[in-house]
TrEMBL record, chain B:
Pfam families: ETF (PF01012)
Lineage, opening ranks: Bacteria, Pseudomonadati, Thermodesulfobacteriota, Desulfobulbia, Desulfobulbales
Domain Electron transfer flavoprotein alpha/beta-subunit N-terminal per the UniProt entry, residue ranges: 22-213
Family annotation (CDD domains): ETF_beta
Keyword list, A-Z: Electron transport, Transport
Originating organism: Desulfocapsa sulfexigens (strain DSM 10523 / SB164P1)
Family matches, as InterPro entries: ETF_a/b_N, ETF_b, ETF_beta_N, Rossmann-like_a/b/a_fold
Name of this chain's protein: Electron transfer flavoprotein, beta subunit
Gene3D superfamilies: HUPs
GO molecular function: electron transfer activity
SUPFAM superfamilies linked to this entry: Adenine nucleotide alpha hydrolases-like
Amino acid sequence: AEKSVQMDLESWSGIWVYCEFRGGNLATVALELLGVGRTLADARGVKLVAVLIGSETGDSAEKLIGHGADIVYRADDPALHYFTDEAYGAILTELIRKKKPEVVLAGATAIGRSFFPGVANALGAGLTADCTQLAIRAGDGALLQTRPAFGGNIMATIECPGSRPQMSTVRPNVMKQLEFDPSRSGEIIDIDLAPAMLKSKVRVLESVVSDSDDVNIQESDILVGGGRGLDTEKGFTLIRELARSLDGSVSASRAVVDAGWIGYPHQVGQTGKTVAPKLYIACGISGAIQHVAGMQSSETIVAINRDENAPIFNVADFGIVGDLFEVLPKLISKIEEHRKS
Amino acid sequence: MKIVVCIKQVPDAKDVRLDPVTNTLAREGVQSIMNPYDQHAVEEAVHLKEKLGGTVTVLSMGPPQAEEVLRQAISCGADHAVLVSDRAFAGADTWATSYTLAKAVQKIGDFDLILCGKQAIDGDTAQVGPGLAIQLDIPFVTCIQKIREATDTELVMERMMDDGYDVLAVDYPVLLTVVKDINTPRVPSLKGKMKAKKAEILVLSAADVGADPKKIGLAGSPTQVVDVFPPPPRGERALLTGSIDDQVEQLVERLAVYL
Ligand SMILES: Cc1cc2nc3c(=O)[nH]c(=O)nc-3n(C[C@H](O)[C@H](O)[C@H](O)COP(=O)(O)OP(=O)(O)OC[C@H]3O[C@@H](n4cnc5c(N)ncnc54)[C@H](O)[C@@H]3O)c2cc1C
Ligand SMILES: Cc1cc2nc3c(=O)[nH]c(=O)nc-3n(C[C@H](O)[C@H](O)[C@H](O)COP(=O)(O)OP(=O)(O)OC[C@H]3O[C@@H](n4cnc5c(N)ncnc54)[C@H](O)[C@@H]3O)c2cc1C
């Protein structure tokens, strides 16, 4: 890995999005990134390029064009069925070296945050982690990347003044996708895959997808979070019911994950997942800083807690002080009533 | 089995605030701790050493006081400690940090396995582990939640994914980053604490590890922090009022857009 100094910045052009594809599906964040990517590309007067890596990608490339891409580079091969850092990284690194884009984005997902750091390091490129805001400066094309750090206690804006490409991973659920437009046209280019590029020293033996309850909470628009105030594992039944009435998913504080009431994939916070749904309803969660760090960028936050001094009320847009065993059944039936009318 | 564990000293995140006037980090009175994920990395290393034999070397890049977390790791069973410390490292981003750590690892010599935490709770990037592996030209796997089998030649492990987990096998050398599920860190024994007190810590400068001055610290960092500011306020504390029935009614009205 060599760091390139004194680069000819002008020769790097185009906005790229790595479009995550796993288990037969495009990740929602890929479409969101095409949305913001379109804005950046138009501001720069350059092409928006999607990079699709996987196997049996079907009509995904067409879908990416309908969502804003001008060009799709596609690497579709049975050897790419499972994600590996080496193969996915080698393909993307090679493509970037050849085509020299100015910006490359990926979702800040398990996959994006794993292989993007390797790609950036190999290219000597700057990589900004887990961005929540992106803008481009007209004059020099500098990407202004804004991200939370210190567990969400501070925000930082980061630039890569002397190197290209400018790379970022971007948090799911913060950027807006464009509506699918079937009349959009674009070019699909299948990449030549040298056998060496498909190799990985790490061998995937099996990919275990958790049961349907374990949805990816980072992709949910509505989350109902349960904490120790639920008293017992059974308390989660109420949380699940509320989530169901809202077509949302269930998340949790670390206290209840540690207690074994629900699995770790549901944990929100500093040592769990960072989420930014449209609506987050915290039930019986005190609002410890480590929890708040993971959910404070939600669009609307509702808190239900019997302690009016609970810190969760400091980040809530709407709060109900009360016993959740009284409030939740009432809330569920009111919501159902509302949805029927 | 030669294992290297990278550990970072971090401010205890719950204490960190921006000074509203100067917009700099108010670090006054903020406690420094071992990055929580790195405690799990140390534990896993010591556990593997107990099973397979070998040594555990802990490595940190940081100011002189980072020695504290290295001693803490020794009290938990690590054998050797190396601190790479030099004013020239100041302002390092993840690229420059991985480069510097790679130089230090090469200086230390042979290794089979490198363990890192998934991420540091201050920078929060999770980029140093993968970057270090690329610098050393070895494979890496992030977010390991379990090592199922470890022999002298191979590891079988579980990598946490967003939708479940992958089961992977790999030969040495390899770099892994670990999440907290992997184990429960032990409490240091009295004997461990004594050993830590007396332990000699090898301190290396940029020149000692043969680092290129253009690739370290701020000068070697492609990313630059140009602005820091507090997160946008979430507005006023808005408790609903009235009977529980009234409050529920008001809430459903306000949430109508989501229903
Ligand atoms: C390094 C580190 C990392 C951490 N990472 C995380 C993390 O990622 N995520 C996380 O969540 N935590 C994390 N924590 C733990 C965190 O500090 C808190 O301990 C945890 O969030 C508390 O969970 P809780 O709110 O469910 O429980 P508690 O703090 O016990 O709060 C329970 C709340 O329920 C309310 N309540 C009780 N009964 C009722 C009722 N009948 N009706 C209404 N309200 C009721 C109480 O008033 C109280 O406010 C971390 C801690 C450390 C040190
Ligand atoms: C507000 C702010 C935002 C930042 N954003 C970015 C950014 O987006 N991109 C970027 O490249 N840099 C960024 N940096 C710089 C970055 O924090 C530092 O480079 C830091 O040295 C390493 O990154 P990290 O703390 O994120 O570690 P991570 O990559 O999260 O750490 C992962 C693991 O690597 C090991 N490790 C990390 N640092 C050390 C060390 N010094 N010694 C030994 N082991 C270590 C540990 O095992 C740790 O668990 C930012 C800094 C600040 C202050």
